[in-house]
Each structure stands twice: as structure tokens, then as C-alpha cells.
Amino acid sequence: MDKSMTSMVVRVGDGLTSVIDIRGDVTAASEPALMAAYEEASRQGARRLVLNFSDLKYMNSGGIGMLVTLLVRANRQHQPLAAYGLSDHYREIFELTRLDEAIGIYDDEPSALAG
Amino acid sequence: MNPVACSAPRRLASFALASVPGSERVALAQVADSVADLNLPPRRLDKLKTAVAEATMNAIEHGNDNRPDLAVDIEVFYSGTEIIVTVTDHGGREGSGWADRGDDTEIPDLDRKLSGDQGPRGWGLFLIRHMVDGMEVTAEGEHRTVRLTIRTPVPGG
Question: How far does the CA of residue A58 sit from the closest CA of chain B (Å)?
Fold first, then answer.
């Protein structure tokens, strides 16, 4: 029931920035898909990553843990993370967990790419 | 005293779910359906849904050790001023120790997680506590119950 409810699509955003379009659920079960997307973006030479949450349906504590894992990996490679498309609810959760201090939060894609 | 606030809580829903991944999604949907007529503001409803999903996940993973044969029992009540959701598992049985194990008993700290001092997970109880107005855990025999309360707008207020 918890599988195959996530899709991650990597695309070139702007220069050396890659955008990962996250569709569906972000839970612990999404980790293989997100890490594969991260690796693909890195192979493409991404120096910076933007996570697009516009089509996020559901995120739980396991998903937050997975984002922490992604942050650790990206920090090691000196790849800053940004995000946009979060609903007010998930934006609040990013503030509570202080993920917003480690991941730049923007209102839309142009702002995130310019960030 | 407000007579509405003093009335006995009315049960809105009662259901049981198997301890399998994904049941938390069913729980949040059924709880949301059961309170649909109470005009909870959307932001409050989102918080209730997140708290219910996290409490159900804890029940499945830590209380029932992911055993599909052990049910998670969920009840929803409305008192006139509060929605009360109880999530009951088998975490009080011998060999289980829901409250005494796992990263969830440690206050999560992002800096420590990023430096490797803490594991990346362990946000569940933290989220629940910040989503609802009250959370308490009680145990009776082998059953352990998490009781979540969230205040509702005063009728006509």
C-alpha cells in the first residue's frame, strides 16, 4: 500500500541547478526514488538542487527523515538545497523541524532558481 | 458554565485497522470524514490528520511491531469544544516497549541529525505534540492508548 505512490522526475532548471519534481507521497518508502533522483541530478553535474513540492499529496515523519538523509548527502557534496510549492501546512512543518533553515524555501520556481 | 462543554463526548467513529504500512492513510481519511460536519478550519484539520497518521504509524511500528494480526483501534469523539481521537495498540504487552525505545523518545534536533549525532528519523512524537492541543498516553493491561485532543471553534462563536 505504501509503494509506488511517489514519482520523482529530474530536469534541468537553470545552468547548474537541477529541479526534482516530487509527485505523490513523501514517506520513508520514497527514499529509493528520491536518492535515485538525487544521483541522476548529480551525474548531470548539478551544483544546486531545487525540490518541487507542488504535487505533494502527503508527507509524514518518515519523509522528513528521508529529507534529512538527503540533506546530509547534499551537504557533503556542497550542493545547496531549495524547495518550492509547499502548502502552508507543510511549510509550518518545515519551520517546526527547522528544515527551513537548511533548505531555502521559495514561493515558486523562478524564485527558487534565482535564489 | 457552558452546557455544551459539559455534555458527554459523542462518539463519531470507531474502527480497527491492520498493522500494515499504509493503514495510517486510511486512519487519517476516516477521521477526517468523521469530523467533516464540525467546520474545523482547514489548517486545524491538516494538523489533526498529521497527528492521527503519526500516532497510527507509531502504533503499527512500535506498539504492534508491524504484526498484521494485531489491530490498531481508533475512536473519534466530539465534546462540543474538542475533538478527541484515541489510538490504541498492543504496546503494553510483554516484550514490547513503545515508550522506552526508538528514536522517538529523544527530542529531535536538526543540527545533531545533520552532524550524525542523531539518526535522521525520530520526528513522529515531536510532530504529534506540535499538531494537537493535547496528547496523553495511558496503558491498561497490554493495551496502550494515545489520546489526542484538538479544540474546535465554539458553535455560533
Answer: 9
